[in-house]
Amino acid sequence: MKSIIHIGGNKTASTLLQKHFFPKLKKFIFINPENDESQVDLKPFISLLSEDDIFYNKFNKKLKKFINKKVIFSSEDILGSQFTSHIAFRLKKVFGKCKVLLVIRNQVDALNSWYISHGSGLKMVPKSYWRRYVSFNDWLNFIFYFKKKGPILALDYWKNYNIFSKTFGKKNIQILLYEDLKNNPKYFYEKLGNTFDVNIDFVSKALENKYERISRKSLNLKLHRIFKNYEISNTVFNFLSHLIKDNKKINCINKKNEDKITQFFTEGNLLLSQKIGIDLKKRGYP
Asked: Which of 72, 65, 70 is nearest to 94 (CA)?
């Protein structure tokens, strides 16, 4: 069994896999650069994802010991990088010939989810502005303006498939659909089990009735929009949530936004469909 690199994608239950599935595969060393509890020194791998060669090359000796090990390396930060092909090359140099697992999701749904959990509040700003409310229209326009990095690049599955298939070989790229996990979990478990050479019962036991995160509530987002300040809106929400039932699914995308997203991703999804033999259009993708 080769090492396996899990590259996300974003908003496709990566945290679920990282918490409940990968650590149970005892044949592998599991490395997640965002996991502070890891038994492995993460500094070289954080450098691999984010630093210039002059700093990254200092870790060459530490990384050489992984070349013949069975490793699961999992990080969502790969796909949103401007230098994905550079990271892919580094990963191959460290882990050698390995499989690459990519879980994809309808980009319209993925962006809706991404906005709710991350995009609706300002980040990478001074503390007094942190998590100030951002409307979906403003966020969508922003990420499309900077589409060569971040969410739009991360969800360009065709571009990312090309990068990793050229680096690791087409036969080593495994693509699963997030929609199967939600709507046909047994099929998803079977495909995931085949990738890691474990049976469906093992996967089912690890993932069934497990949840990565509690979804943000509609009321919470509405209060954020009213108060603008995240801490204030959260305080009010925590008080009101005991009084008001809120199970409404949040959909922030209007027809105009959906058309914009669809227009951008349609061609790449069609090309990807032809390569992987899955009709993504029939599965509801742009």
From this structure: 65
> 37: burial class by Cβ within 10 Å (0-12, 13-18, 19+)?
exposed
pLDDT at 279: 97
Whether 13 has a pLDDT exceeding 90, the answer reads yes
Distance CA 252, CA 59 (A): 44
Does the structure show a pLDDT above 80 at 212? no
Q: According to DSSP H, which parts of the chain are helical? A: 14-20, 43-50, 53-56, 60-64, 84-95, 107-114, 136-145, 151-154, 157-168, 178-183, 185-196, 200-207, 218-227, 230-240, 255-276
Q: Is the CB of residue 90 less than 8 Å from the CB of residue 64?
A: no
Q: Could you give all domains of the chain from N- to C-terminal order, each with its CATH number?
A: 3-215+250-276 (3.40.50.300)
Helix (H, G, I), strand (E, B) or coil at 282: coil
Q: Look at the alpha carbons of 123, 154, 97, 51 in this order and tell me if their dihedral is positive or negative.
A: negative
Residue 247: pLDDT band with limits 50, 70, 90: low
Contacts with 264 (C-beta within 8 Å, 6 or more apart), sequence order:
144, 147, 152, 286
What are 24's two structure tokens?
């149970």
Alpha-carbon distance 67 to 3, whole Å? 9
- Token digits for 258? 């959906």
- Read off φ and ψ for residue 65, nearest 5 degrees: -70, -10
pLDDT-based confidence at 242, cuts 50/70/90? confident
> Rounded to an integer, what distance in angstroms lies between the CA atom of residue 24 and that of residue 193?
12
Task: Confirm if 20 and 114 have CB atoms less than 8 A apart.
Answer: no
Tally the residues of the chain. 286
Residue-level pLDDT at 216: 77
